[in-house]
Amino acid sequence: MTAPSPTPSATTASPKPTPTKPPKDTRKGSQLAKPYTVNGIIVVSKKHRITAAYRPPHPTGPYGLDAPAAAALTKMTAAAKADGVRIRVHSGYRNWATQNASYQKALRNYPQNISFYAPAGASEHQTGLAVDLWDGVTWSLPMANTATGKWLFKNAHRFGFVLRYPNGKTKITGYHYEPWHYRYIGKTDAMKFKGNSLTLEEYLHLA
Ligand SMILES: [Zn+2]
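Above: inputs. Below: predicted complex with zinc ion.
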């Protein structure tokens, strides 16, 4: 008996996914009012900045998040609550001017911690797609070990959020490990980040 042969593939190599080359970020001048986007995913970082003119297209709710991110956050908060875990928002949308003030203040007062801070135009918070989360009690790095930090680490991807600045990836992301900073990219893409060691830069072949 011969083994069933699926498709005539003897002469053709099975298709391999070719690494997608992202488009170059060629924006300049007024074009920087629109964010650099790869495969429909907005990328804002120290390498891909936006001007003060950019605002979330559909700011929603008390934190000014863009509508899809706000909806996903509501669902995620409810799911955590059902598990007995409290999610509070530390910081949502921030405009360019607020970001600039915060960065300048950090430069003056905490220059040793500047890798936690984004210069204006390099912060995902300006997109309304990023949110800093905690339990309302324990902030900064110890937040990672709270029930909230652990729950988010394990579950956020199911709601379309990814841990944007994982531990040990500063060289790639440009930012210190931030266990509180979650970025909404949608469920389909976020599910591929399970485990949280992947960065958006690696995922989009930017690093
Ligand atoms: Zn943040």
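The chain has one domain: 30-203.
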